[in-house]
Amino acid sequence: MNSPLTEDNGLWIRRFHPRPDSRVRLVCLPHAGGSASFYFPVSRAMPESVDVLCVQYPGRQDRRTEPLLDSVQALADKVYEALLPWADRPLALFGHSMGASLGYEIARRLERDRGIVPAALFASGRRAPSTHRDERVHLRDDDGLVAEMRGLSGTNPQLLGDDEVLRMILPAIRADYRAAETYTWEPGPPLRCPVTSFTGDDDPKVTVEEAAAWSAHTDGPFNLKVFPGGHFFLAQHQAEIVRLMAEQLETPVRA
Question: Which residue intervals define the domain Thioesterase TesA-like in the entry (predicted)?
Answer without folding.
Answer: 27-249
